[in-house]
Design brief:
The chain is an alpha+beta fold. It is 38% helix and 26% strand.
């Protein structure tokens, strides 16, 4: 698939999962000043086409591109899509959710931290807003990893 086909497919999936939200948006809908600043920090030929920005109320964000993820928390990270091995909910996050939500079926909507595991055995925790943003990101990444195979 071309980058444009991937962008179209992932954008449609993002809208299916409720994007835009209070903190998350399709990249094309972001302000020009944000896009200009972001694009000055990446090599677009290596990053691919930016598709979706997931933000968090604390100011952290991540952008899904056709070739890489950009993660901004204490630092700025770029992770190649091919380097991503999978995702997991940190044990501390599931324990916190058990305390906050005894109903097992609703508990999954309490998650806010997601660990991205890389093939090089590194991992990074990302903060996502609960509910729509969290599960939207999870399912978008499953789709993106599938499309990149």
């Amino acid at each position: 698939m071309t980058d444009l086909e991937i962008k179209k497919n992932i954008s449609e999936k993002a809208v299916e999962y409720g994007i835009p939200t209070e903190y998350s948006f399709l990249y094309d809908d972001l302000s020009n000043s944000f896009k200009k600043e972001f694009e000055s920090n990446i090599d677009q030929s290596e990053f691919g086409i930016p598709i979706v920005k997931f933000g968090h109320r604390n100011g952290d964000w991540l952008i899904v591109g056709t070739k890489k993820l950009a993660i901004k928390n204490e630092k700025f990270y770029l992770i190649g899509i091919e380097q991503i091995k999978g995702f997991e909910i940190p044990k501390s996050e599931s324990e916190k959710a058990k305390k906050n939500q005894p109903n097992r079926m609703i508990r999954k909507f309490e998650y806010e931290v997601l660990t991205i595991n890389n093939h090089d055995r590194n991992s990074i925790d990302v903060l996502l807003n609960k509910k729509i943003d969290y599960y939207g990101f999870w399912h978008i990444m499953i789709r993106l990893l599938y499309l990149k195979k």
